[in-house]
Amino acid sequence: GSISVPLYRPIQNWDLPSNLRRAAFAFFGVYGTELNPDFLDIAEDVLPKNKEIILICENGGSLENKSGTTTGFQSRALKAACFLSKAGYTKVAYCEGGIGAWTRADLPCAEVEE
């Protein structure tokens, strides 16, 4: 099965800096998020360190240099892989290209009822 452990969460505070971040995100038509400070705590509660963990997000990112980049293309899955690796997880992988590449390749997808 799959487990969702969000690396980002909606912006929580309503102070001036938080509202400025919301406005900046909104300017680009994006919902404002911030790093989830509980990510590793939640991950350690639900993800065993001795099991293989496969991370997937919308874009997937890449460690390979692409046109116009010198260090690959970052994504939420790659960021989460970095955090988990630093926390001692050794069997971490990510889906390069993310959900978008998966569906473009006509690989199977199923919706899970909650």
Structure notes:
- By secondary structure, the protein is of the alpha+beta class.
- The protein has 4 helices and 4 strands, in the order E-H-E-H-E-H-E-H.
- Helix 3 (76-86) links the parallel strand 3 and strand 4.
What labels would you give this structure?
single chain, 114 residues, alpha+beta, two-stranded antiparallel ribbon, 4 helices, 33% helix, globular
How many β strands by DSSP? 4
Q: Biggest sheet: strands, sense, closure? A: 2 strands, antiparallel
Structural class: alpha+beta
Radius of gyration based on Cα positions: 16 Å
Strand content: 5-15%
Q: Helix and strand string, N-terminal first?
A: EHEHEHEH
- The largest sheet has its strands arranged as 1-2
Uncertain parts: none
Gap from first CA to last CA: 13 Å
Q: Which word captures the global form?
A: globular
Average pLDDT works out at: 88
Please report the number of helical segments. 4
Helix coverage percent of residues? 25-40%
Quick take:
With 114 residues, the chain is of the alpha+beta class. The chain has helices at residues 16-27, 39-46, 76-86, 98-104; strands at residues 8-10, 33-35, 53-55, 92-94. It is built from 4 helices and 4 strands, in the order βαβαβαβα.
